[in-house]
Amino acid sequence: MRFHEFVDELELLIRSRYALIVIDTWELDRADDALRQVAAKLSLRYHGWRRSKGLQFGGESNAPFVEDSAAPADVLRLVEREAGVFHLPLFGEYLNDPLVVSHLRDVVDRFEVRRGAVVISGGDVRLPEALRPHAIVVRLPAPVLDDYRVLMERVIRDHTARMPVKVKLTAEDRARLLHNLLGLTLVEAEKILTRLIMVDGALSASDIPRVATAKRQAVEQDGLLEYWSATERMSDVAGLDGLKAWLTKRHVSIADPERAAGFGLPFPKGILLMGVPGCGKSLCAKAVAHEWDLPLLRLDPALLYDKFVGDSEKNFKRALRTAERMAPIVLWIDELEKAFSGNAGEQDGGVSQRVFGGFLSWLQERRGDVFVVATSNDVSALPPEFVRKGRFDEVFFVDLPGPAARAEIFRIHLRKRRQLTAAVDVDAIAAASDGFSGAEIEQAVVSALFTAFHAGGPLGTAHLLAELQATRPLSRTMQERLSTLRSWASERTVDAQGGR
Ligand SMILES: Nc1ncnc2c1ncn2[C@@H]1O[C@H](COP(=O)(O)OP(=O)(O)OP(=O)(O)O)[C@@H](O)[C@H]1O
Ligand SMILES: [Mg+2]
User: How far is the CA of 370 from the centre of ligand 2 (A)?
Assistant: First the structure.
């Protein structure tokens, strides 16, 4: 939806007598802009309010603030008396006060006979039960390329009025720069552009990577999401042919979303990778993003609960929202069970339960092209709802590598270290490493390399065999857990190694 369509929608809502509207956004200025336009279209007066200053009747920026109108009860009393469109940014924070809530309900009732509406904007407005039937929540659409173009032109113009600004951008540079701004709020984008111009009085191609960096900082600011520059490719992953084939099939809808949509294909939602530790789940998450040329954002569930407990829910919602506005992206949620293990529920007053519920509904309702790759190696700690159909496109089980995959893992890691020589009998070491995970194989290669280096000779089969014999792989010590895991998985998941 474009901005002007959003304005039309608001207009329709107010005309249809929706008296309490919540605009879900952090872009309060744009919400303000939309509401002024709507008020003008409906020949209604626009009234703005600020928590620090109070209410301004009429839309003029130099209108006086009404005395004692900053507090919620005071401003509601004024709203009660007038017609028009009242914009109350960030008023949501007062909605945990039952008095404010019932007062607001009364006010809203009045609008049924009077023209106008109360509009609350903010990114995390939680409507109390009592208001829900009276309210409608709309979401301000994210800016599109054209909005950034207009913004950029304005920023350049504003600066040119004060100082000479050299714009050294080809048409392609310009397009690339604008593309890099996508996902930022217009306020953030304006700050970044301003900074780039201020530094050297110019806007040039060398600023493009700086936009990317600044954008990255904007994303990482709240500490829950991390930009991950993945270097791994799918060719670094051995085995898992079933999973690879599945991903390859979906690649078209990422690479050419328009054609895919025309064919009736949706953007894929995501996958859950469960299985044996050290067998390439995290590796795949990284490789997918690189292979698909999408930015990889990693959400660390452990960090959710590092902050104040009561904030976890809010933090999580914000992280998901950030992920959405950076779309198209791959969102990697590693070790999912850490965030949602059911047994934490009692200790934290239900916070993790609510975070979990919020995440489940997000998985279903999310907007934007976000491909989720979630990983977990502890099924017992994961609420069963995750595995149900529809949450993820597919749930894969990643088992220990078979002989062919093990040989491939050896080759990958030997090649990486330039040690894939005729002196190494890959088939022999693959046969000797039954029960080893990919991580353990990699570890064996590294250790054998140290031994060979220490002995002053080239790496040979014997070093590797000795290393394998000296290691007791995890699968042997946790045999029982492994077979439980396998029988659990055989009923509920798709084998990642299978040739489907
Ligand atoms: N199939 C594989 N192909 C190539 N390398 C692999 C494979 N599986 C594991 N490895 C190696 O082992 C390392 C660790 O694997 P990874 O972190 O992906 O395991 P994981 O399945 O996420 O384990 P955990 O459940 O403990 O998080 C990888 O970085 C890679 O070097
Ligand atoms: Mg992992």
Answer: 20
